[in-house]
Amino acid sequence: MYKQMLGNPKLNVTPIEDIKVGKNNIVVDSIQYGNQEMIMEKDVPVKMKDGAELYVNIFRPNKEGQFPVVMSADTYGKDNKPKITNMGAMWPTLGAIPTSSFTPEESPDPGFWVPNDYVVVKVALRGSAKSKGQLLPWGESEARDYAEVIEWAGEQPWSNGNVGTNGVSYLAVTQWWVASLNPSHLKAMIPWEGLNDMYREAAFHGGIPDTGFFRFWYQGIVARWPETEIEDLEKMQKEHPLFDDYWKGKQANLKNITVPMFVCASWSTQGLHNRGTFEGFKQASSQDKWLKIHGRKEWETYYARESLEMQKDFFDYFLKGEENDWRDNPRVSYEVRESFFKGYTKTASDWPIPGTDYTKLYLDAEDAQLKEKPAEHEGAAVYDSEDENADARFSIEFDKDTEITGNMKLKFDRRGNEVYFPDFNHIENGQVATGWLRVSHRELDQAKSTAAQPWLKHEKEMKLEAGEVVPVEIEILPSGTLFKKGETLTVVVKGSEVVKGSSTPGLDTRYAHRELVNKGNHVIHTGGQYDSHLLVPIIK
C-alpha cells in the first residue's frame, strides 16, 4: 500500500557533528523521500555474555509503535562516512552511490528504511569504534557477538521481534556467519555480495596468495583502529599457505542456515565476492531463498532504487507479514551481459540453471582455436611463465547467438574490439570471467567436485618434476554473457594476471599476485591423448 512519505523541505538537515551520545531528534536528507524527521540513538551499549560491551547506533521512526529491525554489523565504524568519499580518490570509478549523509559505507540507509517504518541498527563489532576487545575478522567469535545483538534488538520496546540483516561485502560476510548460528529473532537476511571462504575467495586464488586487495584491506583495518589488537591476517596468510584448520575456522557452515534469504551476486566481483555469494545461495538449507545476479557495479547496484524496493518487498513480507506477492518473484533472476552496462534479465527456477548444456570446447594448439571436436593430432602451446607479456590463447568465433552463463574469459566483438565489463572493485576494463590455479594445488575434492565445478582441496603441494605432464581442472568463476553471431570468445592462459592492478605495492584495490613461483616454460598439451577443453555452460 502506498503512503505519503514526502519530507518537509523547510526542515534543516541535522549536521553530523551536532549528534550527541544518547537520544537525538534529527532530520535526515533522504534521497528518496526528502528531509525526514526521525530519532537517532548514538552509542547505545549492548552487554555481551562475557561482560564486554558492543556499541550500536539506532535510527527509528519518530512515533510510537513496534517496528521490524534492519541490522548490519562490521568493524569499519558505525558512524557516518558520507557517500564513501574516503575511497573516492583511490577508486574513481565507483559509480553513483545515492545515500543520505547518515549512511555508513556498505550499510542500509536510514533515509530509506526509517520512513518505511523500520528501525535501523548499526553494530560496531568488537575491536571497532567504542566496542573494545580483540578484532578477529570474519569468524565465529564475531558471529556470536552479532547473534547476541540480534537477540537484544528483538526484545527492545521499539521492536516487533523480527530482525533482518542487510549489507554489502564485510556486512554480507558477517551475515553468512551469524545466520549459521540461527539466533531466534533473525527472521530474514539480505547478503549482498560477500565471501564466506576466506582462503579460496580472498587470501588465496587457486592456491596463489593475493598480494593485493587482501593485504590492502587488512592494512586499512589496522590504520582505522591503531590502538586495537587485530588478528594479523598478513602473518596468517604467510604462515598458512595451505587450507588447514586455521582457514577452516574462517569458513561459515552454510548448511546450518535456515532463515529466508534474498541473495545478490554479481558477475563483476570475481576474486572476492562472486564465488562465495553463489556458494551461500547453493549450500544454505533455507527453503525460502531468492537469488538476484547482475553484471554491474556493487555499491551502485545496492543503492539503486529498484534494488531498494526489492529489498523492502522481501522484508515487508518476512518481517512485517504483509501479503505483497513476494513469492511470485522467480527464484533466480540474472542479467545476461552483451557489453558494458548493456544486457537483459532472464529468470530461472534454481542455480545452477536447470537444463544447462555443458559443452566441451577443445583446445587446439596447432591453430590456437577452440573447437567442438577434439584435435586429432597432439600439439603444445608454450609460453614463458616468467614473462608478464607472454601467454597462450585459444579462440572460437560463434556461428549463432550463444548465451554462456557460468564460465568464460575474454570476449571480442564482431569488429575485433575487446569488450570490457565492470570488474573487481569497480574497475571498467574487466574480463568476462577468471580462474586461477597453482598446479601444485591441483588435488581435487572428489566428493564436492561436479562436472561443471572442480573443488580444489589446497591441503598439500604436489610439485611437478621437469617434463612431467599432469591433468588439472581450473575453476572458472560464474559469469553470464551473450555472444552474438560473429563474436569471439578467447581463453587466455598465462603465468600472471591478464588485467593488472596498481603498479604501486600497497595501493592494490583489486587482487594481485606478485609472489609467484613460476619457472621456465609452461606447456599446454592438446589433441590426441590429451583431453584439453574448456567446459562452457550454454543456455538454450
TrEMBL record:
SUPFAM superfamilies in the record, alphabetically? alpha/beta-Hydrolases, Galactose-binding domain-like
Kindly state which keywords UniProt assigns to this record, in alphabetical order: Hydrolase
GO MF term (any one): dipeptidyl-peptidase activity
Show the Gene3D superfamilies listed in the entry. 1.10.3020.20, alpha/beta hydrolase, Galactose-binding domain-like
**Domain Xaa-Pro dipeptidyl-peptidase C-terminal: start-end pairs:** 312-535
The record's SMART domains line, in alphabetical order, gives: PepX_C
PANTHER family (alphabetical) = COCE_NOND FAMILY, PUTATIVE (AFU_ORTHOLOGUE AFUA_7G00600)-RELATED (PTHR43056:SF10), PEPTIDASE S9 PROLYL OLIGOPEPTIDASE (PTHR43056)
Q: What name has this protein been given in UniProt?
A: Xaa-Pro dipeptidyl-peptidase C-terminal domain-containing protein
Q: To which species is this protein native? A: Staphylococcus carnosus (strain TM300)
